[in-house]
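Annotators were shown the component list below and the corresponding predicted structure, then asked to write short factual statements about the assembly.
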Amino acid sequence: MVLSTPAREPQQERSRTTRRRLLEASVACIGELGWSGTTVAVVAQRAGVSRGAAQHHFRTREDLVTAAVEYLGEVQLTQLRERVDELPPGESRIEAVVDMLLNLYTGPMFRAALHLWVAASTDDALRAALVPLEARVGREAHRVALELLGVSEDQRGVREMVQATLDLARGLGLANLLSDDSRRRERIIHQWAGVLDSTLPEPGSAEPGDATRKISGAAR
Amino acid sequence: MVLSTPAREPQQERSRTTRRRLLEASVACIGELGWSGTTVAVVAQRAGVSRGAAQHHFRTREDLVTAAVEYLGEVQLTQLRERVDELPPGESRIEAVVDMLLNLYTGPMFRAALHLWVAASTDDALRAALVPLEARVGREAHRVALELLGVSEDQRGVREMVQATLDLARGLGLANLLSDDSRRRERIIHQWAGVLDSTLPEPGSAEPGDATRKISGAAR
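Structure shown to annotators:
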């Protein structure tokens, strides 16, 4: 068994490539044709993969599209993590991070996910596939956001502020769906960086900042 | 001409009722069948209106659905305005207002609008109808939010904070699409009320609050 591994490598490699091509073709397909036009056969053709090979990887179109959204979500979060080292130090870091986060849902990936989410609201099989995925991808985005902002959830109010940041990002993604909303978004990013700067604790500090205490108590 | 007015009233009244029934049936229809399943004929049947009468009011399904989204958007904002008098005074006012605003997009109206927005991203005729409507409804929601919060846009940072509030509300609407997100939303509402309380100027004051000045300058 151990001896057979080197010989199997190229085939595994080919299989991974096929899978990746199918996933990328799915997202393009959903974005152009919506959920109703996205079948395994259509995606296979677009990816230049035989229908049999496609069905070997993904039995149903629900399997295919959820895998596609998960894959692209992971790619996007990995890219985000890799950019951590490029972040400027000091005061301009927070605005750079907020800029990354609030632009997270303005691309083709979000557009495809939105098609699926809306279709799932009237399609039980798709909904059953997407709900656990939504939770998983959401948790992962939350973790990356905490990392980028350099804060910990143990500190009061941080969890809600980071959640609100990602919900705001999705709202901004929606506002960018039919027309280019980047100018308005830029001003909101600047404003929001200021809010987070004064409400989140200093990166790495164990104690919540003054503003967090103030804000957590303000509406009691 | 003046003498004919009383005689025409009942017919105008009937016409308005027919129109309203068509608009309400449209929203229900979009929510259940999506944009692809929503035709003037299907909506007319659901509303109990003849197809001819429906087409007298709305020539195309684009006309019908944009009128439906606009109508329901107006109804919702009117209801919001009417609730101003019920708002508690003093410190708990802000949390009550934020609760109203951040729950704005969690109902069937937003679900229907979302179906249309997503469909419009791959349908040029629908997009052309929706983009000006999106701008109009968005401006109106912004105006109502300013009114409820008792603040003026002339004050620095207010515009962006109110925009962010409505973008956040839409993001929360999205998060509520496939599963009940109300418990998580409640904590975000509480936190957001604290943020607005410390960043917006006092209702009715001409000068921006300290926190607004602080926050506007923080990320420079």
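Statements collected:
1. Chain B has ten helices and no strands.
2. The domain at 8-218 of chain B is CATH 1.10.357.10 (Tetracycline Repressor; domain 2).
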